[in-house]
Specification:
Blueprint: H1 2-24, H2 31-41, H3 45-62, H4 66-87, H5 92-113, H6 117-120, H7 124-136, H8 143-180
Helix pairs in contact: 3-4, 3-7, 4-5, 4-7, 5-8
């Protein structure tokens, strides 16, 4: 039991240090805002962040418009950093965010066809938001990477030739129909 408590404490401290490092990163757009907040209210930025995260979590459970908040979190920041990735000269960040958007798109389609999930699963919007945050974490093996390599890529490699052939056949038929008019 004491060993498990020590592991949880170590995990918490590691995450706290990681969050603190990210909140102090001068290349990130939020750093200046946290500088100002920290200076004005005299509270450490990690505590401000944790408080904001707790408020969002409670709002996702009890608030009106939880779906909107979840989708804002899952789209705004990834869209912003995706634009930065497009404008950067490296390919690595492009791949990271394309992987996120593939995962997000597949999840969105699945969610659409199983819309009852939003009403049936307790705390659905909190769970979805947590899932999306896991998918966009600034880590080498975030959720998007795991899902892409374990689920999406194997199915893509197995079926992409068949799908490509169907698309090509459909395009030829559409071209022939348009050509006849």
């Amino acid at each position: 039991m004491a060993n498990q408590l020590a592991q949880v404490t170590q995990l918490f401290n590691d995450n706290k240090q990681s969050i603190d490092k990210a909140l102090h990163d001068p290349a990130k757009p939020w750093t200046k805002s946290f500088d100002i907040l920290e200076q004005r209210i005299g509270v450490d930025r990690v505590k401000i962040f944790m408080g904001a995260a707790a408020f969002c979590a409670l709002y996702l459970v009890f608030g009106y418009g939880a779906q909107l908040l979840c989708n804002v979190i899952g789209v705004l920041y990834p869209a912003y950093v995706s634009i930065h990735a497009i404008e950067s000269s490296t390919k690595q960040d492009d791949t990271k965010w394309l992987t996120y958007w593939v995962t997000f798109g597949i999840f969105t389609v699945i969610e659409f066809f199983s819309g009852f999930l939003t009403h049936f699963i307790p705390f659905y919007w909190l769970l979805k938001c947590g899932f999306l945050i896991w998918c966009m974490l600034p880590a080498d093996n975030n959720g998007s990477v795991v899902i892409y390599h374990k689920l999406v890529r194997p199915h893509f490699l197995k079926h992409h030739q068949t799908v490509d052939n169907l698309i090509n056949d459909g395009m030829k038929k559409a071209h022939n129909v348009l050509k006849q008019d």
